[in-house]
Design goal:
heterodimer; A: 289 residues; mainly beta; twelve-stranded mixed beta sheet; three-stranded antiparallel beta sheet; 43% strand; B: 877 residues; five-stranded mixed beta sheet; 7 helices; 56% strand
C-alpha cells in the first residue's frame, strides 16, 4: 500500500520536475500552553499527573537528546492537588525520577464511579479539570501466539482477546510484555501492537475484541503480561493523536489530529480522565512454527 | 399572572377572527345581493329575425347599450328564439352558443367580444445534418411577445391564439430560423437548425432571446456547450468540463489540479452529478486530476448553484447535469484525438437512417504502455484509466422515442514485486458504471413525458496477494461501493405560453457496501466482514415557470422526498421559489429560496475526492443533511445581447452536516494493517459527528458572448464556516476551502477560422490547513500500558482546526489551436496548451520539517505543477 502513496507523490514530482518544496517565512507560531495530563485508575498504585509547557515548533532548536528536551519543557514548581467528592484534597509531589507529580494511592482512594477534581497552579495561572472513573473493567483476557503474514513477511504474532463490556461504548488500550521463562534477569520486551493498540466496541456492542502484537521466540515457554485498559474516550483520543500524528507532516493526505482538551483555564491544555486496568500474567507453552 | 395574560390574549384573538369572519361574510353576501342587468330575467319570443334585432329589443327592454366589433361578431345571422323568465346571460348564451364569446358589463354598457381560439404548435428542434435534438432552443413570437424553450429532449409546445405569425427560432452557434405560420389548427412543426459557421464555437454560453439571463426566472445557473471546454486550455491538454466549471464564480476548485469542486461553501459530496439521468458517485480519474467526462461525448453541461428547480434534489450545494450526444442520424462521422497522456476515439452514425443512431466513444491513458519496456521483472508498476460512453437512440414513431446510454470508467493501479522467494501483487481499482434506458412519450401536443430506468454503480477495491517463503500465501481484499437501481417519471405540461409545468416522481434503491473485507492468512484463518446498508430514496415534485405579466415571473416548486432505512423513514417537504422582476426590458432583479435534503453522504479524510472516500447513507442514527439557501441578484444584458452581467448574493445555512471525528478514518493510505485496524475498530456512524455550516458571499460575472473575442470575468467574495460538537472544542471554524477571494479571467480569441487563441488567469485566496505547530511532552509515558514508541515522547499538535491560512494561488494558462479543413473535408486541429505559464509555485500542502543547515524546524510549501506544456491532435471525419 505504501507504493500507492509513493506512486502519487512520485507522479507529482515527475510532473513538477523539481524538488517541489520551498521554505516560507510566514509561519503560524505555536502556542505557549501549560500541558497537563493526568490519568486516574483504582488499579494504579500511584496517582500521577504530568505538568509541562509547550513551545512553538519553529522556536530555536532545543537539545536533540530526548531527555533534555523533556527536561526543558517540564514544569517542576507547580502546585498540583486532587479533590474527591467529599471535598477531601491531597497534594501531589513532584518526582525528579519519574518527572511527574505523584502520590501513593494508599493516601488517597480512587474509586470506581467517583468524580475527582484536579487543580493545578503553574506559570502564575490556575487550571481545573474533573473526571469520573469508569465503573466497569475487563476481567479476563486470553492470549495465543503463532505465525502471521503481514505484507509478505512471516511474523511471530501474539493475539490478545477479551469480551467487550456490554451496554455502552467502550474504548480500550491494549498492550503486552513478554519474557522467556527462566530468563528473569532481563527486562520484559514490549509487544508492538501498532494501531491495534487502540480498539473500540462501536462496531458491535458485546462482541469479542482482539488485537495482534509482535512477539519473538515463540518456540520457547514465555511469560506474558497482558494489559487491557477500559479508558475514557478522551484518553483514547489523546493517545491515538500522539500515535497517529507522528511522522505524518510529509503526508499530504493526512489530517493531523487535534488532541482533546478538558483542562479549564486560559492557556491550559490536556486531559484529566479515568480508566480501569486489567493486568494479568500468563505462561504460554512453546509453539513450533 | 402570565397564564391569565396568555388566556386573555387567546380570547381576544378568537374574537377578532370571528369579527373578521362576520365582516367578510356580510361583504360577500352584500356583493352577491347586488343584481346586475345580466341577472335580470326577461321573456322574449322572436322568429326568423337577425341577432341584431334581438339585441336591439333587449337594449330597449333592459335599458342598456351593446358594444361589439363588426369584424369579430356577426349579428346578421337569422335566428328564432323563445325564452321565458330567463336571465340576460342565459339569453346571450342562446344567441352566442360558442364558449369563445364573452360578455362583460361596464356600467350600462354591455360588451360582447369573441375570445380568439387557441392552437398549439409543437415539435422537435434538431441539428441539421446530424438530427441531434437540441435542448434550450428559444422559440419566440415577437408579435405576441410570447415564447418557450425546448426541453432536454428538444421538444417544445406553444399554445397561442389563432392567426398569422412569424416564429423566430434561435440558439447559440446556429443560424436563426424565421418561419411564417398560419395558425388555424394545431400544428406539429419540426425545425432543423443549421450550424452557423460565422459564430461556430464563438458563443460560449447559451444566449438567445428567451434564454438571455435577464429574460429567464431561473438564477444561479449556467449552461456550457462543448465548444467551450474544447477551447479553454487545461492541464496536459485533457479537455475537461469540470475544470471549466471551476472557472465560474461560486464554483471553486480544491487543491491544485483537482477536479473536486466546492459550490457556494459546500463540499464535493454535496454536488449532485447526473450523467444522462444517472447519478455519478466518483467523478475523478487519477486521484482527482482529471474528470471522468470525456469531452467528445458530451452534448451539454448545466450547473445549478442555487434556486434549484424542484425536479432536482438529494444534494445540498449544486446540481451538475451532463447530457451526452445521441449520435448522428444522417451519416457516419467520428473524431480521433491524441494528447500527451491519452487517446480517444468517437464514432457515431445511423443504424437506420433517420430512425436509429448510435454513438460510442472511448478514451485510455497510455503512460503505462510507454513505461512498460523500462520496468524490470522484479518490479512492475502499472497505472491507467479508461472511459467508454455508448448511446443508442431510436425513434419509434413521432410520439415515442427510446434512448439507451451507458458509461463505463475504471482506474487501474497494479504493483508487483518479485524477489527470490517472495512475490507480492497489489491492485487498486475504482470506477463507475451507469446505464440509463429512457422512453420519451408525447401524450398530446401539450404533455410530454420521459420515463427512465437507471442503474449506477461505483466500486473501490484494494487487494493484496503475498507469497512468502515456503509458498505461504496471504491474501487481503477490501472494497466499498454502491449500487443504485432507479425509476423516474418526468412530465412537462405546456398549457399556455405563461406556464410551463414540470412534475414527476421517482424512486431509487441504494445498495451500499461501506466496507467489505476478506483476509486469509497463513493459518488459513479467514476474516470476512461485510457491512451492508439498503435504503430507498423517493421523491415527488411539481414546479411551474409562470410568467405573471411582462415584468414579473415566478418559478415556484414543491418537492416531497422520502428516505427509508430499515424501519426508520424520513419524509421531508422542500419548498423552492424563484422570482424575477424586470426593472427595465433587459435588466432584471431576481431572488430565490431553496430547501434541500441530502440522504447519502461521502466520508472523506482528505477532502480531495480520493477513491478511498466512502459513500454511506442516512440511517436511524444519522439524520439527513439539510440546507436552506436564499439568493438575490441582478441580471443585465446589453451591447445588443453581446454582453451579460450578473451579480448575486447568497446565504446558505446547513444543518446536520457530517464530518469525521478527530482521528477517525476508514481506509487510509497506509499499511494493510492500518486499514484492517481502522475497519475493525470503527463503525461509520460512531466515527462521525454532525454539525452546522454557514456559507455566504457575492458573485460577479461579466461575460462577452459574441464576436471574435469571447470570455468572462468572474469574481467571488465568500465565507464558509462550520461548527461540530466533537471538533475544535465545539467552536466555529473556517472550512478548509473557505476562500475569501476567487477571481477568474477567461478569454477565447478567434481571429479566423484557422486559429483559436485562449487563455485564463486565476487568482484565489489561500485555503485553510491543519498545521501542527506546537511541541509538548506526550501523554504516553504517563499511561501504564507500555508502547514501543513511548520513548519518543514528543507530541506535535495544534489546538485550533484549520489554524493556518495558506498563501494565495494564481496561475496563467494559455492555449492555441490551429484548424484546417483537409481536401477530404475533414477538420484537423493541432492544439498546444501551456499550464501555469509563469511557473508560479502554488501551494499543494505545507510541511514542517528540519532545515538541514541549521537543524531548525521550518515551514515548507510543497507545490506540484509548474510550467507544463502539452499538445493534442484531433481529426474530425
Amino acid at each position: 500500500m505504501k507504493s500507492y502513496i509513493l506512486f502519487i507523490i512520485g507522479g507529482f514530482i515527475i510532473l513538477g520536475c523539481d524538488d517541489l518544496k520551498e521554505e516560507i517565512k510566514n509561519k503560524p507560531e505555536g502556542e505557549k500552553l501549560v500541558l497537563i495530563n493526568g490519568f486516574l485508575s483504582p488499579e494504579e498504585k500511584v496517582i500521577k499527573v504530568k505538568v509541562s509547557k509547550t513551545i512553538s515548533v519553529f522556536d530555536e532548536p532545543l537539545q536533540i537528546e530526548q531527555a533534555d528536551f523533556e527536561n526543558t519543557l517540564l514544569i517542576k514548581d507547580a502546585v498540583v492537588t486532587i479533590r474527591n467528592e467529599n471535598q477531601e484534597e491531597i497534594e501531589l509531589i513532584y518526582s525528579n525520577d519519574n518527572k511527574l507529580y505523584e502520590i501513593s494511592s494508599d493516601n488517597f482512594l480512587i474509586a470506581p464511579g467517583k468524580s475527582y477534581t484536579l487543580n493545578v497552579i503553574a506559570e502564575g495561572k490556575e487550571f481545573k479539570a474533573t473526571c469520573t472513573i469508569p465503573t466497569t473493567k475487563v476481567e479476563n483476557a486470553t492470549v495465543t501466539k503463532g505465525l502471521k503474514i503481514y505484507e509478505g513477511n512471516v511474523r511471530e504474532n501474539l493475539i490478545v482477546s477479551f469480551d467487550d463490556l456490554k451496554g455502552e461504548n467502550n474504548f480500550y488500550i491494549i498492550g503486552a510484555l513478554f519474557n522467556t521463562v527462566n530468563n528473569t534477569g532481563e527486562d520484559p520486551t514490549i509487544s508492538d501492537f501498532d494501531i491495534e493498540r487502540f480498539a473500540t466496541d462501536v462496531n458491535g456492542d458485546g462482541l469479542g475484541v482482539s488485537a495482534n502484537g509482535t512477539i519473538f521466540n515463540i518456540n520457547t515457554t514465555q511469560e506474558i503480561t497482558v494489559k487491557v485498559a477500559n479508558v475514557d474516550e478522551i484518553i483514547y483520543t489523546t493517545l491515538k493523536a500522539s500515535f497517529l500524528n507522528k511522522d505524518q507532516t510529509s503526508n499530504p493526505f493526512f489530517q493531523p489530529i487535534i488532541p482533546p482538551n478538558n483542562i479549564q483555564g486560559e492557556g491550559g491544555y490536556g486531559v484529566f480522565a479515568g480508566f480501569r486496568l486489567l493486568e494479568t500474567k500468563l505462561t504460554l507453552d512453546p509453539v513450533n512454527p | 399572572m402570565q397564564k391569565s395574560n396568555c388566556r386573555f390574549s387567546i380570547i381576544v384573538k378568537v374574537k377578532m377572527i370571528w369579527v373578521l369572519f362576520i365582516v367578510l361574510f356580510i361583504g360577500l353576501f352584500d356583493s352577491y345581493a347586488q343584481e346586475t342587468i345580466l341577472d335580470q330575467k326577461i321573456n322574449l319570443v322572436k322568429e326568423n329575425t337577425s341577432i341584431a334585432n334581438v339585441l336591439s329589443e333587449l337594449e330597449t327592454k333592459l335599458d342598456f347599450t351593446i358594444g361589439y366589433s363588426d369584424s369579430v361578431i356577426d349579428l346578421s345571422k337569422v335566428i328564432s328564439i323563445s325564452v321565458k323568465e330567463k336571465t340576460l346571460t342565459q339569453v346571450l348564451k342562446t344567441l352566442f352558443p360558442s364558449k369563445l364569446y364573452q360578455f362583460k358589463l361596464l356600467g350600462k354598457k354591455l360588451l360582447i367580444y369573441k375570445r380568439p381560439k387557441k392552437y398549439t404548435i409543437s415539435g422537435y428542434i434538431s441539428e441539421k445534418g446530424s438530427q441531434e435534438y437540441l435542448g434550450s432552443v428559444s422559440i419566440y413570437i415577437p408579435e405576441l411577445n410570447a415564447g418557450t424553450i425546448t426541453n432536454d429532449y428538444g421538444f417544445y409546445s406553444l399554445s397561442i391564439p389563432e392567426g398569422s405569425y412569424q416564429v423566430l427560432i434561435s440558439f447559440v452557434g446556429y443560424k436563426n430560423v424565421k418561419k411564417n405560420i398560419d395558425l388555424v389548427s394545431d400544428r406539429v412543426i419540426n425545425f432543423d437548425l443549421e450550424l452557423d459557421t460565422q459564430y461556430l464555437d464563438e458563443v460560449i454560453i447559451s444566449s438567445d432571446q428567451e434564454t438571455n439571463k435577464s429574460q429567464v426566472t431561473q438564477m444561479s445557473s449556467e449552461r456550457l456547450n462543448p465548444s467551450l471546454f474544447e477551447d479553454i486550455p487545461t492541464i496536459l491538454g485533457e479537455k475537461d468540463a469540470i475544470k471549466t466549471l471551476q472557472l465560474l464564480p461560486g464554483v471553486q476548485s480544491g487543491s491544485e489540479g483537482s477536479t473536486g469542486f466546492y459550490v457556494r461553501g459546500g463540499t464535493p459530496d454535496q454536488n449532485l452529478i447526473i450523467l444522462d439521468e444517472a447519478t455519478v458517485y466518483n467523478s475523478n480519474h487519477l486521484f482527482g486530476i482529471f474528470s471522468i467526462f470525456n469531452g467528445d461525448a458530451i452534448k451539454s453541461v448545466e450547473i445549478f448553484k442555487g434556486g434549484f428547480p424542484a425536479r432536482y434534489g438529494g444534494r445540498l450545494s449544486s446540481v451538475v447535469k451532463i447530457d451526452t450526444k445521441n449520435g448522428n442520424k444522417e451519416k457516419f462521422a467520428g473524431k480521433a484525438n491524441i494528447s500527451l497522456i491519452s487517446s480517444s476515439l468517437l464514432l457515431e452514425g445511423p443504424i437506420k437512417k433517420g430512425k436509429t443512431s448510435f454513438v460510442i466513444s472511448g478514451r485510455r491513458t497510455y503512460a503505462d504502455l510507454l513505461l512498460l519496456p523500462f520496468m524490470s521483472k522484479e518490479y512492475k508498476l502499472v497505472y491507467y484509466f479508461t472511459d467508454v460512453n455508448a448511446k443508442l437512440h431510436h425513434v419509434i414513431n413521432d410520439k415515442n422515442k427510446l434512448y439507451w446510454s451507458t458509461y463505463y470508467g475504471q482506474d487501474k493501479y497494479r504493483y508487483k514485486t518479485a524477489a527470490e522467494n517472495e512475490k507480492s501483487k497489489q491492485k487498486i481499482l475504482w470506477g463507475n458504471i451507469t446505464s440509463t434506458l429512457r422512453w420519451n412519450h408525447e401524450f398530446n401536443n401539450k404533455l410530454f413525458s420521459n420515463t427512465s430506468l437507471i442503474f449506477s454503480n461505483y466500486k473501490f477495491t484494494v487487494s493484496n496477494k503475498n507469497r512468502g517463503a515456503a509458498n505461504r500465501i496471504s491474501t487481503f481484499k477490501t472494497s466499498s461501493g454502491i449500487n443504485d437501481y432507479g425509476v423516474k417519471f418526468d412530465f412537462n405540461y405546456y398549457p399556455n405560453p405563461n406556464h410551463t409545468f414540470k412534475f414527476g416522481l421517482g424512486s431509487t434503491y441504494h445498495d451500499f457496501t461501506p466496507k467489505e473485507i476478506d483476509i486469509r492468512n497463513i493459518s488459513d484463518d479467514e476474516i470476512v466482514n461485510t457491512q451492508k446498508i439498503k435504503t430507498l430514496e423517493s421523491a415527488i415534485y411539481i414546479e411551474d415557470d409562470w410568467r405573471i405579466n411582462d415584468r414579473i415571473s415566478i418559478y415556484p416548486g414543491l418537492r416531497f422526498s422520502h428516505f427509508q432505512h430499515k424501519s426508520k423513514g424520513y419524509f421531508k417537504p422542500e419548498m423552492r421559489l424563484s422570482v424575477a422582476y424586470k426593472l427595465f426590458p433587459l435588466f432584471t432583479l431576481k431572488g430565490s429560496y431553496a430547501k434541500m435534503n441530502q440522504y447519502i453522504h461521502r466520508l472523506s479524510n482528505s477532502g480531495l475526492g480520493l477513491p478511498t472516500d466512502l459513500w454511506v447513507s442516512s440511517t436511524e442514527r444519522l439524520k439527513p443533511q439539510l440546507s436552506e439557501q436564499i439568493a438575490l441578484g441582478l441580471a443585465k444584458d446589453f451591447g445588443n445581447n453581446s454582453y451579460e452581467l450578473t451579480i448575486e448574493g447568497y446565504y446558505k445555512k446547513m444543518n446536520d452536516i457530517i464530518a469525521f471525528k478527530e482521528g477517525v478514518s476508514f481506509a487510509g493510505l497506509g499499511s494493510e494493517k492500518e486499514i484492517t485496524g481502522s475497519i475493525r475498530t470503527v463503525d461509520f456512524v460512531n466515527g462521525i459527528t454532525t454539525g452546522k455550516g454557514w456559507a455566504y458571499g457575492t458573485e460577479f460575472l461579466l461575460r462577452k458572448k459574441k464576436g471574435k473575442l469571447t470570455g468572462w470575468l468572474g469574481y467571488t467574495l465568500s465565507w464558509s464556516q462550520r461548527q461540530f460538537e466533537d471538533l475544535n472544542g465545539g467552536k466555529i471554524f473556517n472550512e478548509r476551502y473557505d476562500r475569501r477571494h476567487d477571481f477568474s479571467l477567461v478569454g477565447i480569441y478567434k481571429p479566423s477560422k484557422k486559429i483559436t487563441i485562449s487563455g485564463n488567469w486565476l487568482f484565489a485566496s489561500g485555503i485553510n490547513y491543519n498545521l501542527p505547530n506546537t511541541l509538548g511532552v506526550a501523554a504516553g509515558d504517563n499511561f501504564p500500558i507500555e508502547d514501543v514508541n513511548n520513548n519518543d515522547n514528543i507530541l506535535l499538535f495544534n489546538t485550533e482546526k484549520n489554524n493556518f491560512k495558506g498563501e494565495n494561488f494564481h496561475r496563467l494558462d494559455l492555449g492555441i489551436q490551429f484548424h484546417k479543413i483537409t481536401k477530404r473535408k475533414r477538420e484537423r486541429t493541432w492544439g498546444f496548451s501551456f499550464y501555469n505559464v509563469y511557473a508560479r509555485k502554488n501551494p499543494f500542502y505545507y510541511e514542517v520539517s528540519k532545515n538541514e543547515e541549521n537543524s531548525r524546524n521550518v515551514l515548507y510549501r510543497r507545490y506540484l505543477f509548474q510550467f507544463l506544456p502539452s499538445f493534442n491532435y484531433s481529426l474530425k471525419f
